Amino acid sequence: MSRQLFTPDEILNITRGFRLTKGARSRLDRYDVPAASFCVDSREAREDSVFFALAGERTDGHRFINDAFESGALAAVAEVRSLSRDPSWFLQLAPWLKRKIIFVEDSLQSLQETARSWLARFPDITLIGVTGSCGKTTTKELIASVLSQEHETVKSPGNRNSVIGLPLSLFEIRQNHRYGVFEMGVSLPGEMEQLAALVPPEIGIVTNIGTAHIGNFESSEQIAREKGMMFSRGARQAYIQEDCPWKEQLVSGRNLDMRLFGPGHAPGIEGYTNRGLLGWEIAYKGKTISYPLIGYHNLVNAFCAVTLAEDLGISEEHIVRGLEQVSSLAGRGRIVHAGAVTVIEDCYNANTDSMKAMLSYIHTLNWKHGRVGLILGAMKELGKRSGELHRELGRQIAGTACDAVFLFGEEMEETKQALEQEYHHIEVCCTADVRELQHRTMKYFRPGDLALIKGSRAMELERVVPRLCRAV
Question: Does one domain contain both 135 and 272?
Fold first, then answer.
C-alpha cells in the first residue's frame, strides 16, 4: 500500500505559503517528491517526512526544525513570525532556509488544511467518530477490530484525537479503506467544532458524558453541548450509551437516527459472565465470545461495537472474531504478570468516572490470592471542583474491598482526609514524592498481592510498575 502523500509543491499551494527562494530551481530541489509521512515531533522525522513546526505552551517546534532536517525531512512548514527570531536561528537553518522551508501564517491551521485536502481525495470512505469523557480509545479499537474483519478499515493511531492528533491521523487513509474510525477528544470549548470540520462523521458515537476536563467547562451540560457538536456536520446516525442523561440534548435539533447501546440495547446478546482478570464470556446468538477486556465499562464498550456492527451488516463470525482479537492498550486496564505481584496498569488517564468504574471492578473481583492495594494518582483538569471531586474519590475508596491505599499528588490530601473520615481500618499513604511512593509500595507488596495503578497522565504512574513487578 502506497505511503506517498503530498509533495512540498502541493503543500505550498494548499497552505498558500511561500518560500524565500528566488530564481530558477536547482537540480537538488525536491519540490515534486511525495512525502512519506507528516509529523509535529522532530524525533519522529525520517527520510522524506514533512515537519510542521508548531508553537506550543511548553516548547516551540521551530527550535527543532534543524533536527528534523538532519533526520532526513523533505521539507518543513514554519510560521512567518518565526523570521523575527534572533540571528542565531537563521545561522542554524542556513542550509535549509531558502529552499526547504514553507512559511505560513499559522502552522496548525496549515496542518489541518493539508489533512482536509487529503481526506477530500477519498469521498467514498465512511467516517465514524468516537467521543466521550472516557472509553474513547478502547471503543475506537473495538469498532475498528470488528469492522476490519470484513472490510479494509483505518483508525486513528493510539489516542491521536486532538486538534493536532486528528489531522495527523487522516494521513493514514488510503484508497482501499471502506471505513475510517477516528477518535475525537476535546479539552476546551470550541474544539469539537474544529474536529468535526476536519472529520465530518456520518456515524457518531458518544461513550459517556462525565467530568473529564470539567475544569475547562462550566458544567457537564456544557460538556454535553460540546460533544454534541460532533453531529453538526451532517451526521446521519448517533450511537449513545443508554444511561447517558444527556442523550436527548446531544441530538436535539438534528435530523439523526439515535441508537442506544448497553445491556438493555444489545442486539443478539443473550448473556454475559464476569471472568475476572480474564475479561468476560459473552453469549451472542448461540456463540460464545471470549472477550479479554476487564471491567463492566469495557463490557458496555463491547456492546457499542456489536450494535454498530449489526447495523452495518457485519457477519456474526466477524463480530465474534473482532471482539476476541482486541487487546488492552498500555496503561488502559492492562494486566501485568511480570512478577510475583499482579498489576492492573490503568494509568494512562483518570477522571471521576473512570476511577469509579475501576474501583467498582476491584470491589467485585473477589481477589483470593493475597492482599489488594490501590495506587492512585491525582485527577487533573478538574478546576474549581478539584477538591470536591477528590474528596468524593475518598468516599468511593472507602466502599471498595482493599487492604491498603497509596495516594500520589498534592490533590490527594483531600482524598486521604475523606477516606480516613469514612474508614479508619486501612493503611493509607499519601505523598507527592515519586521516590517515596516507589519505596512504600515496594516495601508493602508481596507475592500473591494485587495492585491497581490508576491516575492522570501527568502523574506518570507507569514509573511504579517496573519496580513493583520486582517486589518480593
Answer: yes
